[in-house]
Design brief:
about 90 residues; alpha+beta; two-stranded antiparallel ribbon; two-stranded antiparallel sheet
Length: about 90
Amino acid sequence: MVATAKRDLRAGETLDGEGGYTVWGKLITAATSVERNALPIALAHGVTLLRDVARGETVRMDDVDLSAPELAQILDLRRETVDQLVAER
């Protein structure tokens, strides 16, 4: 599940996660998620947008500030998933 903009979002806004007003979860394959550098919906709560994202677009990992220390473990797991998918190709 990846974060998808419910409306036009502006840099500086804070995402409110699944069930909120900013993003919804869209199901795509893991491979497609990695190709698009998509932001998992689980990481879309309380993070700040670094650039505008249009309604309906997938929010990418580099569209948000993921520097908060509490995200480190989750980001490590995401990197492991990406590495595994790349190795399988």
